[in-house]
Amino acid sequence: MTSPQAIPGGLRPDTPTVLVKIFGKDRPGITAGLFETLAPYGVDVIDIEQLVTRGRITLCALVSAPSRGGDEGEMRATVHAWAESMRLEAEIISGKGDNRPRGTGRSHVTVLGHPLTAESTAAIAAAITSNDGNIDRIFRLAKYPVTAVEFDVSGTATAQLRTSLALEAARHRIDVAVVSSGLQRRAQRLVVMDVDSTLIQDEVIELFAAHAGCEAEVAEITARAMRGELDFEQSLHARVDLLAGLDASVVDKVRKEIRLTPGARTLVRTLKRLGYQVGVVSGGFTQVTDALQESLGLDFASANTLEIADGKLTGRVVGEIVDRAGKARLLRRFADEAGVPLAQTVAIGDGANDLDMLNAAGLGVAFNAKPVVREAAHTAVTVPFLDTVLYLLGVTREEVEAAETAD
Ligand SMILES: [Mg+2]
Q: Per its UniProt record, what PROSITE patterns does this chain match (predicted)?
């Protein structure tokens, strides 16, 4: 008998092997039944794959040729008789050796659709093929609130695949993330998020402006900044200046008005369970991010600080300014403190001032972002649920829900 353990590097390519495929209505005992049927033939198991889709089981077993109890023909007859008794379909194919080795250049491709159409799935699969990639495995990560499917791909460079699939994603209005495969994906990581319109649904300066009765003026400055007439720091100072004289008690009111983005708590809780460190960087204010850090149990938080004197906002900010470059600098600082290489960081943001941070991170996720941000980021999420980011990290909805239920 040829034992795979006896040969370094696995099975010899010329060793006779038998592939047994079982398909039919799933019920308890099928897997046990198949292997109980094979056991008298003294076969070794080389590979098993099993999946159940809407109550139908597909079970594939790759085994060595029979070493006792009869020849391959007899084993085939026994398996077919068993399958017939179970009202299952069996296909048995003789061959040689193990699975073909996977090609070099391995990636995980996560596709998020709402809905995921056959047309967009065809486009993704065709693009993988045209990049000389091979789809080794496909499985569903989530069915709610989006359909999320992961393709394990080999044989093509991750960066090339990412560029090509980004075009298909934009064309078909789906979200596609391509990350390289490897231990890195399982390692503990650091996730750093923007706050306004990312972790929360609001823009904090606008909440303050509403209390100061200067919403229109603040909106005008924001628009000028977006037209490129002011840089972030200039617009920050100009907007905060409009808040001068506002009673400091407004800070508490604004904290209460903040609405977390759907899925924000689930995202943070799940990341913490995975042992990740989580932080926020904001062009907004520590008066708000400190409260978020406290309530969500974040490891890191940094933002601008509104100056308060004699119970009133002075219209100035104090300390280091968190702007576009500052956010990227803070990502590096947090990674350093967390002891996580930059390549293992994930940054999430929606605005132009998040771009440096998104590009500096190992994975930059544009979250419901403007086109300019979406196009420059590694990947984009265009559904308004922050926990969908978990699927990009390979976490399934089932795992998330099981952990929530267990608590
Ligand atoms: Mg933002």
A: ACT
Which residues form the domain of 200? 191-405
| 8-32 pLDDT, tens digit each | 567 889 999 999 999 999 999 999 9
Q: How far does the centroid of ligand 1 lie from the alpha carbon of residue 202, in Å?
A: 9
Query: Which residue stretches of 86-203 are H helix?
Result: 118-130, 158-172
Ligand 1 mean position, distance from CA 338 (Å): 23
Same structural domain for residues 89 and 212? no
pTM over 0.85: yes
C-alpha separations of 228 from 114, 327, 351 in Å: 34, 19, 14
What is the number of domains present in the chain? 3
Distance of CA 100 from the midpoint of ligand 1 (Å): 46
Q: What is the mean pLDDT of residues 120-142?
A: 96
* CA of residue 349 to ligand 1 center, whole Å: 6
Please state, in angstroms and rounded to a whole number, the distance separating the CA atoms of residues 386 and 223.
Answer: 26
Answer yes or no: 136 catalytic.
Answer: no
Q: Looking at residue 243, which CATH number applies to its domain?
A: 3.40.50.1000
Q: Is 387 an active-site residue? A: no
Res. 2: pLDDT tops 70? no
Cα–ligand 1 centroid distance for 280 (angstroms): 11
Q: How far is CA 36 from CA 32, 60, 306, in A?
A: 6, 15, 71
Looking at residue 79, which CATH number applies to its domain? 3.30.70.260
